[in-house]
Amino acid sequence: MCKISEGLIQEGKRQAKLENILALMETTGWDADKAMEMLKIEHEDRPAYAAFIKTAADNTARAQA
Predict the structure, then answer these.
(1) Could you tell me which residues come within 8 angstroms of residue 52 by beta carbon, excluding any fewer than 6 positions away?
(2) Structural domain tally of the chain?
(3) What is the residue range of 24's domain?
(4) Which tens digits make up the pLDDT trace of 32-60?
(5) Does the pTM exceed 0.85?
(6) Helix residue ranges per DSSP H, 1-65
(7) For residues 30 and 36, what is the distance between their CA atoms, to the nearest angstrom?
(8) In degrees, to the nearest 5, what angle opens at C-alpha 25 toward C-alphas 24 and 27?
(9) Could you say which DSSP state residue 44 is in?
(10) What is the Cβ-side half-sphere exposure of residue 20, based on CA atoms within 13 angstroms?
């Protein structure tokens, strides 16, 4: 498989994981850490997802203000 295809697949997997984290947070009221734990997101990957979630939340709050 070419490197471009591999990169697109990995990006798609990251996006799907992020959407799953956000969906669990919304439907269960869990925080990001609990949602990532339940989805068995690797510990070394969690800070990146948490940072993206925080940035998205900050942007949403600013847009609503």
Answers:
(1) 18
(2) 1
(3) 3-64
(4) 999 999 999 999 999 999 999 988 887 77
(5) no
(6) 3-28, 32-38, 46-64
(7) 10
(8) 65
(9) G
(10) 14
